[in-house]
Amino acid sequence: MPKDTPSRWDRNMQQRLAHGEAAALGELYDRFASLVHGLAHRVLDDEDAADQITREVFTRIWENPEAYEPKQGPLRSFIATLTHHQAVQRLRQTESAALVRTGLGTTEELERRVRHASAAARADYIVTSMPAPLRAALELAYFQRRDYRQTAADLGVTEDEARRRLRLGLQLLSTAHDSGTPPGRFGSQA
């Protein structure tokens, strides 16, 4: 399938939502609620706020299914972008209100916190979205402190392949701090 062709599931889901099919919303929620909640929690560091963002994201999708354009990319990326935007907006609101209320801190510190939370959420999204072979190599290298030789042995691949997977995985992760439009448009609305 060409890279710019939306998946059949994504197109079908968008059409079902546009027709007001409640079962479609349930399927969408089952598939992406943990992604939405995890990203929101990563940005906001608040369970209740993440729950609220999760409800808001799915409500917004239900009320505006035409906002998703399958030709723009995967539905997963659209949902992640929407979640990111909502969570960053909420973080700015709550932190700005705290800044005004307490007088402690500066707008520069606020923006630094927002950028940090945004980059951390983006890194989480990148790791969970990368192909399993890349993710497995990074997890072995990072969490189990394996070098590329040990990683190759654990994965049953050549050392060159292990190095390639680690390099590509790290290159993908390095985009978490980019201020430009990242893969899947994630972060473009921050």
UniProtKB/TrEMBL annotation:
InterPro entries: RNA_pol_sigma-70-like, RNA_pol_sigma-70_dom, RNA_pol_sigma70_r2, RNA_pol_sigma_r2, RNA_pol_sigma_r3/r4-like, WH-like_DNA-bd_sf. The keyword Transcription applies. It holds the Pfam family Sigma70_r2. Residues 28-94 form the RNA polymerase sigma-70 region domain. Keywords: Sigma factor, Transcription, Transcription regulation. Belongs to the sigma-70 factor family. ECF subfamily. This is Sigma-70 family RNA polymerase sigma factor.
